[in-house]
Write a structure and sequence with these properties.
Layout: H1 9-13, H2 22-38, E1 52-57, H3 62-66, H4 70-74, E2 77-82, H5 87-96, E3 102-103, H6 110-115, H7 135-145, E4 146-147, E5 150-151, E6 154-161, E7 163-166, E8 188-191, H8 194-204, H9 215-231, E9 233-237, H10 240-249, E10 254-256, H11 261-265, E11 271-274, E12 280-287, H12 296-306, H13 309-319, H14 326-331, H15 334-340, H16 345-352, E13 353-355, H17 370-382
Parallel strand pairs: 1-2, 1-3, 8-9, 8-10, 12-13
Antiparallel strand pairs: 4-5, 6-12, 7-10, 7-11
Helix pairs in contact: 2-5, 8-9, 9-17
Length: about 375
């Protein structure tokens, strides 16, 4: 059966990765505070139009929100600011959370941003479709999306930074270390997703939770990644668009990636998914509302629409991503069901993947903090 080669332009072509560290975050916070204190305009911001909501997030993620007649029923259209890296959401919230009606924070940032007072607590009564979210999905996103019993983001899709391989040119990998095999030298790639890379090779190093590494464990992980980069990889792909091109051309036969990539490659190559024994970093993405949003009710209505049957299926079709509500899982097309196996979500979240929390932000004994992870990845890139 031929693959659906639908390729959402933004998320495939330009999606990059979080590169904002704690120091940068604090600088942004200080700048925002100074702007507020002296009454200067700071960075340009989109004004709120009476008939629109400001959306800040990945291109493609808005397709869940906008399906159907939601614009007519609310009297509001989305005014989109598409991001090319995850840190842009943090920056825009810091510089004016009240100008962000709906956003897609990086999943480990949700409760961190909530604690910083940058997100509105969600009124679940205004999101009746929230009750339709699959219980397994709901359970695994609580750690990141809840703070003190309140939800600050509503899950809308999920996935993992898994392994991909060309089934016509490589054996199905069972471990991240299969990329070290001689027969694949110069034929493997990883993306520039430092969180996924440090997770994977932290697990190879024997770390139980790679987001809670000691300094020694992080140093060992860096050693493994430097060896991988210098002696085995063809390249580090800066975006998924680049990765798709290399898989399609046959330059790369095994890589770190993301489930939808198999569809985006299309018939150019027989790309399949593999979940290594060390697990893949899992994530659950969601929508949040900036603190002080000018139209919280309409923002809730759009999020509710994203969790409707039509919203879920529209987003899944447009992006080759999974859905999170039970009714959408039942109605998803055969290709989507085959890729995400909704009948066994417990295995996905317990055996194949691990949904991780935010890195420590402040010093805590011998644990590495957010800055240390950033510096570790920079060391890999410069090696």
């Amino acid at each position: 059966m031929s693959k659906d080669t639908t390729q959402p332009d933004g998320i495939v072509r330009v999606r990059q990765y979080v590169d904002l560290d704690r120091r940068q975050l604090l600088k942004t916070a200080a700048a925002a505070g100074a702007v507020a204190a002296i009454g200067l305009p700071g960075l340009p911001r989109k004004a709120h139009a009476a008939d629109s909501l400001n959306y800040v997030g990945w291109e493609g993620y808005d397709t869940f929100l906008t399906e159907g007649d939601i614009a007519e029923s609310t009297g509001k259209t989305l005014q989109n600011t598409y991001i090319s890296s995850a840190d842009e959401v943090v920056t825009k919230l810091r510089l004016g959370a009240d100008q962000v009606d709906i956003c897609t924070p990086y999943f480990i940032h949700d409760n961190f941003l909530a604690a910083e007072g940058l997100l509105e607590p969600l009124d679940i009564a205004k999101i009746p479709n929230f009750s339709k979210i699959n219980s397994t999905v709901s359970e695994y996103c609580k750690e990141n999306m809840q703070l003190e019993g309140k939800w600050y983001a509503a899950p809308m899709t999920y996935g993992s930074i898994c392994m991909l391989y060309n089934a016509d040119k490589a054996e199905k990998p069972t471990s991240w270390t299969d990329m070290l095999k001689d027969e694949y030298k110069g034929k493997c790639a990883i993306t520039a997703d430092y969180t996924g890379n440090l997770f994977a090779w932290g697990r190879v190093a024997g770390v139980k939770n790679p987001h809670r590494m000691t300094h020694k464990e992080l140093a060992k992980t860096v050693e493994l990644l430097i060896d991988l980069k210098k002696n085995h990889l063809r390249t580090i792909a800066p975006s998924y668009g680049d990765l798709v091109n290399m898989l399609s051309s046959g330059e790369v036969v095994m890589c770190q990636g993301w489930e939808p990539v198999t569809t985006w490659v299309g018939d150019g190559a027989n790309i399949q998914i593999a979940y290594p024994k060390e697990k893949s970093m899992g994530f659950i993405e969601g929508y949040a509302i900036g603190k002080g949003s000018g139209d919280v009710d309409a923002a809730h209505a759009y999020i509710n629409n994203a969790l409707s049957l039509k919203g879920q299926l529209a987003g899944a079709t447009a992006n080759s991503m999974p859905v999170v509500t039970d009714e959408a899982m039942e109605k998803a097309d055969d290709a989507n069901k085959a890729m995400y196996d909704y009948a066994d979500l417990s295995e996905y979240f317990e055996v194949k993947t691990m949904v991780v929390p935010m890195y420590p932000v402040e010093e805590d004994g011998d644990l590495a903090v957010w800055d240390d992870y950033q510096e570790a990845w920079e060391k890999v890139l410069k090696s």
